[in-house]
């Protein structure tokens, strides 16, 4: 995943509303370079309260992995779609093939140990995560196995909005930029345009989830969410 500008990847929980795919073209039009679609999961261990709430709402709506993929297969959007989910779904036989059939170009599995990556890495581009606590030798292994981009986790905590970008995010992005030619995207806690701009001074772009889902949960439709994403795009540019 390479562009001639800083990369903006907004996130949305699949099934959060009956017409959730209407958000995808709105995000693309607002300046997204790729879109992360989360498959709602009943025990999202790495997600904070906002994404957990979004997952619970989606599950209450009857959302399943199949319904998310069916909706994606019926939706046209002119940027790559990257799915995120947890390992017990990702390693199921045929899951990655189903992703590709639905037009998905990559996969994020935050709880998949490096040792289990071989189970699915030949089936789809798997973007791997590195945290500030990851030892240097382990981080080198991770970036060598990652495909598409490397996900730099900004801090040792769950996803969620924050008042400031942790210094650990900049330190980690700097280390990873020196270790790989893949784009390095910073996620977890990017919630304000200033955060995006600060992270992108070192990294290749940002992933924004909780701040978007808070707006969706509060009733914001595609147009209003697109307006927020456009402020992130402007900050990155």
TrEMBL record:
GO terms assigned for molecular function: tryptophan synthase activity
Pathway entry: Amino-acid biosynthesis; L-tryptophan biosynthesis; L-tryptophan from chorismate: step 5/5
EC number: 4.2.1.20
Catalytic activity, as annotated: (1S,2R)-1-C-(indol-3-yl)glycerol 3-phosphate + L-serine = D-glyceraldehyde 3-phosphate + L-tryptophan + H2O
Keywords: Amino-acid biosynthesis, Aromatic amino acid biosynthesis, Lyase, Tryptophan biosynthesis
Function noted in UniProt: The alpha subunit is responsible for the aldol cleavage of indoleglycerol phosphate to indole and glyceraldehyde 3-phosphate.
The name this protein goes by in its record: Tryptophan synthase alpha chain
Source organism: Amycolatopsis albidoflavus
Gene expressing this chain: trpA
